[in-house]
Amino acid sequence: MSALTDAVDLVILIIASLVPALLYLSWVQRTERYRTQGWGPLLRAFAYGAFFATIVAAVLEVVIVELGTAVSQKYPGPDFTFLNGNSPLGSFFLVLVIAPFIEEALKASGVAANSSRMAILADGPVFGASVGLGFGFFETFLYGVGAYLTGGLAAGLVLILVRSISSVVLHGSSTGMFGYGYARSKFKVPGAGSGSYYLLAVGMHAGFNALASLAAIFALLSLPTVAVSAADVIALFAAIGFAFWAIEHVRDVINASDYPALVKGSARFRPSAPPSTPQPRPPPQ
Question: Is the pTM of this model over 0.90?
Fold first, then answer.
């Protein structure tokens, strides 16, 4: 009976993690009106982010943290403290530097894997958001399982809910912006391209993590307990606000790019205005 209960709880956690991510994906997909991507390609991009990008990123982060900890122990002193994954400073270095660079790079590889399916500029942020939302779904599920193992089903569901309205949205937004930059490079749009937008995605990710870690930063600075508690509440709402502002910006970018100025196989970008509704000809005099 216990095994059956655990299996049912696991299914509940999967559904609770998956449904919000798919709803966000539908929201983004419907933003692209001129040439809406089908669910098949988007779900494949979603699965790439969920399984390949998430798992590889987790393995790389563990390896890097273990190597950094070994280096800091071999060369003790203030110079390498930030590499020690067992120290507070090392934890912040992981959250604010290592994780954003690695995770955005793995998610970016999912965007590149769908390059051949991009026919217009708006396809880039749509595929980027798909990969990012997949990553956010599976990462959230794994965190939910961790909370479930220590605090039960309610704890797992609460954590999944909080991450579903914050971290999942952020992952879709940051990779959506990289997807836009990747499409700009693909279609030879003048100006910033893949590299700049990758750094933007890393900055968005690191900024979000900094907001979410505000209470921990205050605690590290030995500020009063009341300040730490207030920072915890402020950080939650600030992170949620930032995540939804970011996804709205991605949707604005899709709207601005959603017209047939770019066609598959075009040699260069030809700026043009979105198509307007044809005006009827006046009747003959």
Answer: no
